[in-house]
Amino acid sequence: MFCEKAIELIRELQRNSEGQLPAFNEDGLRQILQEMEALYEQNQADVNKAKSAARSDLIPSIKLRHCCLLRNQRCIMAYLYDRLLRIRALRWEYGSVLPANVRFHMSAEEVQWFSQYKKSLASFMRSLGGGAGLDITQDMKPPKSLYIQVRCLKDHGEFEIDDGTVILLKKNSQHFLPRWKCEQLIRQGVLEHVVS
Amino acid sequence: MFVTDIRKDFYEVVANQRVALLVAADIDALCACKILQALFHCDHVQYTLVPVTGWQDLCTAFLEHKEQFRYFVLINCGANVDLLEMLQPDDDSIFFICDTHRPVDVVNVYNDTQIKLLIKQDDDLSVPSYDDIFRDEEDEDGDGDDSGNESDGGSEPSGKRRRFDEGAIERRIERQRARREWEARRREILFDYEQYEYHGTSAAMMFFELAWVLTKDTKDMLWWAVIGLTDQWVHDKITHMKYVTDIATMQRHVSRHNHRNEDEENSLSIDCMRISFEYDLRLTLYQHWSLYESICNSCYTSCSFKLWTLNGQKKLQEFLADMGLPLKQVKQKFNSMDISIKENLRDVIEESSNKYGMKDIRIQTFGVHFGFKNRFLAGDMVHAAAALLESTERDESDTTDNFIKALDSLSRSNIEWLHSGIDLAKKKLLAIQQTVASCICTNLILSQGPFLYCYLMEGTPDVKLFSKPLALTLLCKYLLRAFVHSTRNKRCKLLPLVMAAPKDVEKGTAIVVGIPPESETSDKKNFFGRAFEKAAESTSSRTLHNHFDMSIIELKTEDRSKFLDALITLLS
Description:
The structure holds 2 protein chains of 2 kinds. Chain A has 2 domains: 124 residues, Methane Monooxygenase Hydroxylase, Chain G, domain 1; 47 residues. Chain A has 6 helices and 5 strands. In chain A, the strands form 2 sheets. A 3-stranded antiparallel sheet of chain A has the order 4-1-5, covered by helices on one side. In chain B, helix 9 packs antiparallel against helix 10 and helix 10 packs antiparallel against helix 11. The longest helix of chain B has 38 residues. The interface between A and B is medium-sized, with 19 and 24 residues.
């Protein structure tokens, strides 16, 4: 049946919940493009036949193939765009350096897009605050206090904070640290915010 | 050295620095830690909290953190040994020690630079004076000078020189004799000073006072201070007199905080925390259990009635009948008892218990009340937190996990943890009572001469519960009390108790605890710390003196008998 591979791609994205990026499905994409090519050629041939031999009974099949082509295009566009949105969210989630396993799942073009997005975000942030620059990827929720109490969930080794001092993060030790340094680690699951 | 002005010499010093908190594993330390954490949160002092369960933990934690921190605060650990020798710190590390263990090691007292003790100086310390213990080593040169003088003036007649020689030799002999005498006296003084272990003012109360001086004290901190004090009483660390005195101190703070409750117009919302002074019954956890269970499982009542005998059970029924409490009511959950019965319960029980020889069924304590459902007495919270701290529910759980859970349960926002702690405490109390009953009935307590001895076999039910120091100490205390009530031998009533229980079956270790004898006016001074050390040395048994309380040690089970023999000979 036509357009099934396209639906496969969409389903693959849906199966992976928000925020996860599955591997770039080159194969699937290539197959869909091949299908589209085949459909297009058939359509070309039929249109020529219909024009020259005045065979109007070919028109419904031409229309059908045309619809399939449009559908495939729409599915591919949705796939690519959704991936881009997820990659954009990754910048806000992880920071400007992506972990290796995530980068592995991106195609070369996506990597290029990501670096350009990074650049434009960085230049925007630099322009804020009258040229002084402001990091808007910090403090996604309005902070209640400067320092927070965190508990270490697993051994993470040494961790350096802004004034150069090093803290040893051992399992079940509790620390009282500036909140901006901890946010990264809290997102990674190494530290846990303790609300008493 | 002792810190005189705790605000200037401690708080303002650490306020702009990063601090490492090393906290021991007992409830008083947990409460003190919470108070200090709350103060640090107010002032944004960055800190790192590391739980430590013994000397080895302390050394490891210090080694790991000594690069990063200059200021260390030790809570309930470190005062009773020579800390500088044990940890070998750099010259710029400063230790603030708030510890209830006494006696405080003399080196810690007289060190001016690195050790600061957050302990009140009038706290019944009787530290020997400096000159009695320390002496400058410059007197060595006095001998040299004398012999040096002899070589001058070479034209002196030999007779005179011999007289000079004799004079010099006599002086030297005199000096050496004086020195020997001084050293003997010094040994004696140190022996007397360090012989008995006891406990001082609660660490939580010290930190609450700091909060009060900074006028940053809140009701939460006050409640934690009360829990810390009650922990000392529940685990029998301080005398009754001291407990009552400290309760009076706390009562002043409580009435100061309750000042706002009096106001009729702007009364506090029901969700606010209210602490009240209660002259309440000495029945453990009775408000969260049924009255009957509580009477059966509290040390005081169970030993007075001797509930492990049939006679005792009958007496209990008589007691309940005397008070007019129907059995059905008494066996239900306390909260579901009839209001008419609950109203005068305390007075009714006090009257009846006077008839049965229980004069002190009521004890001064504090209770807290927040929200509609949540009422707790200080004793309840101590038992719950102690049960969580030493829970053996999950086999391979880290001691630090339990520490974190117990620490969390002290906050008002973690009521579920508190309730689970109360359930664990109930199980623990039941286990203790059953073990006590079986030990008394099977005569497991033997008199070894200078002390009583009991060993828990490996197959005893719930023996895993008793491989932890706090639980074992509680069991020891109850057992001794029960024994004193059940034996007819007058001499045995005045003996202390040593108890051993298996700690780790695979490694073949046992945990040994010694407690002082039970008496009305006992001053809770424990000599077993030194005794255990000496006995272990003399028999070269494989012992581990890891616990901060010197009277709790670990021992290889094979060495148990020779260790015991050495102890008997030592103490007779």
